[in-house]
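Consider a concrete sample entry:
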Amino acid sequence: MSEAGKTQEDPALVLPDYGGGSLVNLMSSIATALGGTSAYPPLATLPPQALAGARHLVLLVVDGLGLDYLSSRDGALRRHLHGQLTSVFPSTTASAIPTFLTGLAPQQHGLTGWNMYFREIGAIAAPLPFRVRTGRHALREAGVTPATLFGLMPLFDRLPLSCHVVSPRNIVHSDFNVALSGRAQRHGYDTLDELFGLIAGLLRNDAPSYIHAYWPQLDSLAHEYGIRSEQVATAFTALDAAFEGLLDVVAGSGSRLIVTPTTASSTARRSRPSIWTTIPPCATPCCFRYAASPAWPTLTFALAGKGYSRTMCGSSWPTASSYSAAQISCSAAGWARARRIPACATVSATTS
């Protein structure tokens, strides 16, 4: 059966709308509005002219917040619902985060999953924590850097204004974050209050700026306890209150605030999508289905120049910091079952 046929048979399965309705297009609108360029069409529901002229433009990425969940909760975020968009493919945090930081779709930035095989180093590695999959040793120990491995230019380096990256303290200065933050100034936080305090402080600066902020807690809690858990509800309530408080700072500043997730967390097999912004109600939601990566393949290690080889199954990396390189071959049969992941949402608020 053709892919088109499959889509017609399963209306819950949709492609990302790179023609004007995805996260890629949101980043195109942002880049163009801030004086940069993009090879992708702008977001149809939030074109560059709607963002141009803002003194500060804030993009707050709330990992895991989707339309289904937002629609079930009352509050400031829901009241500022603007519109619906699709995520990227694969619809995973590991693919969406590089899109936010580079403005590129996964097909162009090349980071398509949490664990990937990199031919350049002959190893399976996790791009975001920038470490090998087995043993979790940092790739920097082998002299590998994100710049040399990925070859990506940060979006911030293509924009003609001050840029800021606000991320959890435990990742803000990670190898991946440093590389893809480029010349942007990095700010770390430990709590939700600190996150919104940092954003509020940056909004009070006179010089125009672009502020990218990331809050992963909702997604983390959803993975651990479930999207309908009390823990997630408590975190959302705190987020919504902080968002409402930030609107008071935005008011009268000529700034623009956009909130969007990477992808939406869900515990339902046929969950509805997720996406939001500030004006009309959403259209029919959609979701993606994709094959997850192979589970714990058997790895054969041959550490270069050390006369050492060993076969193991997803357990431990040979420990020795003196090993400067490793050639890894991997074979694995079968793929994890396909799973459905909701599309994402965008919230946008502006006052002047």
Q: What stands out?
A: Confidence is low (pLDDT under 50) at residues 1-6, 265-352. The chain has two domains: 12-104+157-291+340-350, 113-151+294-334. The longest strand covers residues 56-62.
